[in-house]
């Protein structure tokens, strides 16, 4: 279902998205190309089904929507979620004839995305450990006044780390994992109780991502009123994502203007000194 060329391209995307050198820093790499919703566009272009891959990536994105890496601590590296989880979930859903935008496919994608996140963690720390080896070699060469090693340690050697720990594993897992889909289909029928349990669990995981996001942005209980209002408005008016964003932007602008008015009122009339006002 997934050819060697497609698997190699997915491995290359994973390698580039994890490399600060290839993607001009973590802003383009880790915080953009590594995110499932963005990565799904490239995965879809490679697999020839952009819409289907985006639909598969949505529940994965929601699960990890609040994921950050404070101090280099990684709970789940999204390179595996994006470039292993999306292709395998897409291949499995297609082989089962599931609607890629349906609840069963979403549950399957969520469960699979949560599982492969640990693979990305191994890749992250494995790359970091290998880069420490290059750093040790660099310091040893600098002690011998070999300053040419600096460029190699900063540019060339880390690419070798990503090639060995990101490119090759992703390519092999995606290619052979997609071939194992047929065996998975025979061993675990979609109508069995354990597969339905997996779908249910996977459908609940996006709620965990939303809860983590709310925990990081909600400062007091009354803040939840705005979220409840937004969900109610979007649900009752059947707004699309773009329309909901536009409505949210209008309310944000209104709130900003009201806040500025209150601040100016609290500051008092401009240019009037308190002493002169008393006189």
TrEMBL record:
Residues 1-17 form the signal peptide. Keywords: Cell membrane, Membrane, Phosphotransferase system, Signal, Sugar transport, Transmembrane, Transmembrane helix, Transport. It comes from the Bacteria. It is found in: Cell membrane. It is a multi-pass membrane protein. The chain crosses the membrane at residues 106-134, 155-178, 198-218, 225-254. PROSITE patterns: PTS_EIIC_TYPE_4 (PS51106). One of its GO terms (cellular component) is plasma membrane. Pfam families: EII-Sor (PF03609). InterPro entries: PTS_IIC_man. One of its GO terms (biological process) is phosphoenolpyruvate-dependent sugar phosphotransferase system. This is PTS system, mannose/fructose/sorbose family, IIC component. It comes from [Clostridium] innocuum 2959.
């Amino acid at each position: 279902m997934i050819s060697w060329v497609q698997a190699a391209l997915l491995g290359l995307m994973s390698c580039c998205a994890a490399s600060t050198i290839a993607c001009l820093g973590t802003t383009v790499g880790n915080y953009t190309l590594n995110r499932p919703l963005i990565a799904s566009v490239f995965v879809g272009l490679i697999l020839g089904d952009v819409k289907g891959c985006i639909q598969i990536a949505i529940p994965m994105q929601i699960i990890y929507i609040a994921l950050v890496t404070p101090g280099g601590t990684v709970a789940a590296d999204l390179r595996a979620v994006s470039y292993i989880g999306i292709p395998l979930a897409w291949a499995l859903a297609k082989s089962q004839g599931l609607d890629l935008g349906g609840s069963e496919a979403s549950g399957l994608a969520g469960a699979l995305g949560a599982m492969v996140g640990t693979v990305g963690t191994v890749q992250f720390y494995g790359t970091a450990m290998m880069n420490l080896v290059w750093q040790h070699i660099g310091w040893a060469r600098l002690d011998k006044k070999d300053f040419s090693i600096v460029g190699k340690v900063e540019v060339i050697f880390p690419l070798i780390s990503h090639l060995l720990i990101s490119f090759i594993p992703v390519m092999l897992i995606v290619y052979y994992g997609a071939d194992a889909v047929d065996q998975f289909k025979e061993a675990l029928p979609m109508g069995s109780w354990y597969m339905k349990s997996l779908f249910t669990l996977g459908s609940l995981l996006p709620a965990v991502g939303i809860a983590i996001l709310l925990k990081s942005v909600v400062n007091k209980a009354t803040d939840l009123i705005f979220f409840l209002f937004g969900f109610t408005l979007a649900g009752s008016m059947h707004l699309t994502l773009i329309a909901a964003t536009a409505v949210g932007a209008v309310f944000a602008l209104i709130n900003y203007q009201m806040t500025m008015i209150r601040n100016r009122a609290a500051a008092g009339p401009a240019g009037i000194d308190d002493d002169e006002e008393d006189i």
